[in-house]
């Protein structure tokens, strides 16, 4: 590892991930995150389509659903943070729930707070620090300009907002990535 890299690993990230510009170790589909064996704390973004609200319509690749469970194990072992949509059934998994304790907990956030164009509720699984040790959250007061899910499935005031592309939905806002790196740096376990 080069000396100018921060000691954090981002796992299961997109090939065009913002983390690749953040001087940290990145594992995308080419650099297989399943082989990650430490020693750095992690930020895990495992695929969510097999766990989300529309999982019955999803067509995950073979073994893709298991990546989230492996990511839970990696976050628990090395410290760090895993992010998934707030409605993900991953957060009801007994293997994940059995790891909860004083330094392993859930935190609910909205990626819009860090500049995402749409309201994107996210649940974080954090291991290696207590809630009191979490860095401050800076809120964005920018207007919500898009929706994550097509407006034909929504009703109410945001019905006329444009839908984000799949790539835009998946991208991590720059300020959110920086905050997650701060969290991971505090979570070092080994």
Give a description of the structure.
The protein is of the alpha/beta class. The protein has one domain (9-186): Rossmann fold (3-Layer(aba) Sandwich), CATH 3.40.50. Helices cover 19% and strands 15% of the residues. The chain contains four helices and six strands, in the order E-E-E-H-E-H-E-E-H-H. It has helices at 64-78, 94-97, 166-170, 174-186, and strands spanning 9-11, 25-27, 42-44, 80-85, 104-110, 121-127. The chain has a six-stranded mixed β-sheet with strand order 2-1-3-4-6-5, with helices on both faces. The longest helix has 15 residues, at 64-78. The protein starts with 8 loop residues before the first strand and ends with a helix. 35% of the residues are buried. The model has no long low-confidence stretch (mean pLDDT 87).
- Helical content stands at 10-25%
**Could you give the distance between the termini?**
17 Å
Shape estimate: globular
Number of DSSP helices?
Answer: 4
What does the radius of gyration come to?
A: 16 Å
Percent of residues in beta strands?
Answer: 15-25%
Q: Give the neighbour order of strands across the main sheet.
A: 2-1-3-4-6-5
Uncertain stretches of 5 or more adjacent residues: none
Report the biggest beta sheet as strand number plus sense, adding barrel if it closes: 6 strands, mixed
At the fold tier of CATH, the topology name is Rossmann fold
Order of helices and strands: EEEHEHEEHH
Average the pLDDT over all residues and give the rounded result: 87
β-strand number: 6
Number of domains: 1
Query: Which secondary-structure class do the elements indicate?
Result: alpha/beta
User: What's the CATH class label?
Assistant: Alpha Beta
Name given to the CATH architecture: 3-Layer(aba) Sandwich
